[in-house]
Amino acid sequence: MLKGIIFDMDGTLGDTLQLCVEAYRGATEELTGRRPSAEEVVSYFGLSDRGVLGGLLGMPPDSPELPIETFVRIYCERHDELAPAPFAGAAELLHRLKAKGLKLALLSGKEHYTGEPTLEKFGMQGVFDLKLYGDPYYNCKADNLKRAMEAWQLSPQEIIYIGDAPSDIALSHSVGVAIINAAWCSNAAAESAACTALNPEYRLTDFAELEPLLTKLTS
């Protein structure tokens, strides 16, 4: 029986992918005069906020000179326009799961720079027992899944991860954790073949299907 549920953020709790892409493009243009393509931005995804921005600017992501504040400002300025709310019912679902006594974690490639503003915007503050953010040098989700298991003293069979990207499936499986492939985001069709080829335990195309499945798995 599941005791812990771990959620990705972008594309899973809200359709925030366009917000992320456009904030990186806008920040790079403001800082350098060059506006990168969406494809270039996405090529760095899997790294954290500083990792993506550092790649786009050709700077070490841990440099104190990295102008992360410019990216964060644009991200927050465009939040209402590009991602005004989470998927319908997402915040309410999290609060219901917490009220049931389930352990909840956020596991995202983002860092606190953008993760915290989005949690506030989406009404999800105080819901997660753990917030496991990304690393500027590598996709650390597998390591963070291990950290969640250690913190909660749970086995891989007692937790599940919910994420949208093919890499989420591969990294979750690499540590023996089952995954619900969140295929309800606007970009899901483009990644459908890649996701299904990795054989996620569950693949849902409608966010409304999530709560019935979690109820079954936690009963």
Give structural notes.
- It is a single chain.
- With 219 residues, this protein is an alpha/beta fold.
- The protein contains ten helices and six strands; from the N terminus they run βαααααβαβαβαβαβα.
- The mean pLDDT is 97.
How is the topology of this model organized?
Elements: E1 4-7, H1 17-32, H2 38-42, H3 49-57, H4 68-82, H5 90-99, E2 103-107, H6 112-121, E3 130-132, H7 141-152, E4 159-163, H8 166-174, E5 178-182, H9 192-197, E6 202-204, H10 210-217
Parallel strand pairs: 1-2, 1-4, 2-3, 4-5, 5-6
Helix pairs in contact: 1-3, 1-4, 4-6
Q: Strand percentage, roughly?
A: 5-15%
Number of strands: 6
What is the helix content? 40-55%
Rounded mean pLDDT is 97
State the end-to-end distance.
Answer: 7 Å
User: What is the SS-derived class?
Assistant: alpha/beta
Count of individual helical segments: 10
Integer-rounded radius of gyration: 17 Å
In short:
The chain has 219 residues and is an alpha/beta fold.
Question: Which features would summarize this protein structure in a list?
Answer:
six-stranded parallel β-sheet
